[in-house]
Amino acid sequence: MTIARATKVARILLAIASVALWLLLLRPQALGGPAAYLVIRGDSMLPTYESGDLLILHAADRFGVGDVVAYRVPEGEFGEGHLVVHRIVAGDGAAGFVLEGDNNPAPDPWLPKSGDVVGRPWVAIPRVGALIAWARQPVVLGGLAAAMVVALVVSRPVRRPVASPYPTSRVGVRWGVRPRAPRTV
Q: CA within 20 to 30 Å of 75's CA: 82, 89, 158, 164, which one?
């Protein structure tokens, strides 16, 4: 086996392993996977998490007092559907969890049940969420789109004129019509 072939096989195996890792660990819950992604906004979880941190959450079977979890604000409540990351201070999954931010003086007004809990933090990446939030601003997205259009236009290959099989001295002699090719008998 040559080095070039071995390198190609190694790249293919690395790609397959990366896709398998993504399917098992990082596939979003919306696609049937175990992960959810959340950018921290605010200071309610200081010093554990700062504003702008990116959290990768994993679903779990059970949650207990002391666990940091992300939950959706229950239906019918103000802010329904939004994800909130706070620590469980009391309660259970059937009656509802009492949650409170590490930097908050009082518990949350909602009592989410187990079905409202998205998961617990698996990985926290500092400041990456701030970069994502910046990139999602309309001005930045518009600038990126304009840059892509300019790159496409500039990188377009130049088309060279195709050489004519006819002598250039005779082209366009009579009303811009090309002469016919000579007949062969």
A: 89
Q: For residue 23, what are the contacts with CB-CB under 8 A and spacing of at least 6?
A: 33
Helices (H), 26-173: 128-135, 138-154
Answer yes or no: is pLDDT of 168 > 70. no
Residues 159, 155: Cα–Cα separation, whole Å: 12
How high is the pLDDT of residue 120?
96
Q: Read off the amino acid at residue 145.
A: A
Report the side by side order of strands in the sheet with 68-72.
35-39, 54-58, 117-125, 68-72, 83-92, 96-100
What's the rounded mean pLDDT across residues 65-88?
A: 92
Under the banding of pLDDT at 50, 70 and 90, the label for residue 3 is very high
| Closest C-alpha to 105, from 120, 93, 89 | 89
CATH topology classification for 34-153: Umud Fragment, subunit A (2.10.109)
Segments making up each domain of the chain, as ranges: 1-32, 34-153
Stretch 129-140: mean pLDDT: 91
